[in-house]
Design goal:
Blueprint (H helix, E strand, L loop, with lengths): L1 E4 L2 H32 L5 H5 L2 H7 L8 H23 L17 E4 L6 E5 L5 E6 L3 E6 L7 E9 L5 E8 L2 H6 L8 E6 L3 E5 L4 E3 L3 H18 L5 H35 L2 E5 L3 H4 L6 H7 L1 H15 L2 E5 L23 E3 L6 E3 H16 L14
Helix pairs in contact: 1-4, 6-7, 7-10
Length: 383
């Protein structure tokens, strides 16, 4: 994702496009609902795309928006219905597609490199230009070179008013091989937690930074000031941005932390075993929901898997059941309340940190899943 700096005029145009795209999205959604309710007809993506030229005759201002951007708006409606029907088939809570507020429609997709968007690198360090159809060149920060062939560009506005572009590229097999790290076969088991962010089977612990907890008081104070500001005033708009900046700072710090820790793990280990946690069910616990969301385990697992595939590493997800209650030395199982942080085995006498014991079991289960058997026993019992 790269930061872009549109001029004041370009920013007004982009914001106008977002409003028009939001209206198009809601109109397409309403048309699908009405067609099925009144005539029993299910409209497709192709059907609604064919109507776009006629929509431009009725709404001439739609002609100012690039055609491919409008096509993507219709595609988003189509994907929303595909996801809805998939959830119905899987027996999950469906969640029918909903209309979008113009304050919650934040991105524009330019689908074709060389046609709807182009990228130019300037001589200055970390500077470039993003050329968008019907908008012209926009200054862009090129913090790293683009590898591969660009395919799509998504221009996004954050709640704080910043603009970013996310560029999707296609990599050839040679590019993928070049990006892979030196081979290593060293394995590791990773047990995520709340006291520590993660405990490794090597005995090392990654501290939990608790970014949300750190700024929780500041966020609550900003939220109270926002609630007191009169609606529709400039003061309320300013207070809303203060709240958005606080949330953005927390999210950026959390993402930076996870990216750095994942990079360290991928560079060091060739085999990584993690728990197959269903985090969306765990956050239903009212006592731990805020702390679990602050730890952001889902983001950690997702980035670990993506980085591992890119670097040629192997990530195995194992069943998390009883990993903390089973002795990593002899296999004895005993109840372990969350308040007990030291595992003491009554059979073999092993005394070890609870999370360290869990990470050793996770590693063993991961090795077993790929056909490797190597029961890891600590050299010396202790904390």
């Amino acid at each position: 994702m790269r930061l872009v700096y549109p001029t004041h005029k370009q920013e007004r145009i982009l914001e106008a496009w977002l409003v028009l795209c939001c209206e198009t999205y809601n109109a397409a959604l309403d048309e699908r609902k009405s067609a099925y309710r009144m005539a029993g007809i299910s409209l497709s993506y192709e059907d609604q795309c064919a109507e776009l030229p006629g929509c431009k005759e009725v709404r001439p201002d739609l002609a100012k928006v690039p055609y491919q951007v409008l096509q993507d708006v219709v595609k988003r409606v189509d994907l929303a219905f595909d996801a809805f029907f998939q959830r119905v088939e899987e027996g999950k809570m469906p969640g029918f597609p909903r209309f979008k507020s113009r304050f919650r429609y934040h991105s524009l997709t330019f689908k074709q490199f060389g046609n709807s968007f182009k990228i130019h690198r300037q001589g200055k360090k970390n500077r470039g230009t993003l050329e968008l159809a019907r908008l012209g060149p926009v200054k862009m920060v090129m913090h790293r070179a683009i590898k591969g062939t660009p395919k799509t560009a998504i221009v996004k506005r954050t709640p704080t008013g910043k603009w970013f572009v996310s560029i999707t590229v296609e990599l050839r097999a040679n590019d993928l091989q070049a990006s892979r790290l030196p081979h290593t076969s060293e394995p590791v088991g990773i047990d995520v937690g709340l006291k520590t962010f993660a405990y490794l089977s090597t005995g090392e612990a990654i501290a939990n930074p608790r970014f949300f907890r750190e700024d929780e008081t500041k966020l609550a104070r900003a939220g109270r000031k926002l609630a007191r500001a009169p609606k529709g005033t400039k003061e309320r708009a300013h207070k809303r941005k203060v709240v958005a900046r606080t949330h953005e700072r927390i999210a950026n710090r959390r993402k930076n932390f996870i990216e750095q820790e994942v990079s360290k793990l991928i560079a060091r280990f060739g085999f990584l075993a993690v728990e197959a946690l269903v985090v969306r069910n765990m956050v239903k616990n009212p006592n731990l929901a805020k702390s679990i969301a602050d730890a952001s385990w889902s983001m950690f697992f997702t980035r670990l898997q993506a980085k591992a595939e890119e670097a040629g590493r192997q990530v195995v997800r194992v069943n998390p059941a009883y990993t903390s209650q089973t002795c990593s030395a002899c296999g004895h199982r005993q109840p372990m309340p969350l308040s007990v942080r030291v595992y003491e085995c009554p059979q073999c006498g092993l005394v070890i940190h609870r999370d360290h014991n869990g990470s050793l079991n996770i590693l063993e289960d991961g090795l077993h899943a790929v056909g490797r058997h190597s029961r890891v026993i600590p050299e010396a019992p202790g904390l």
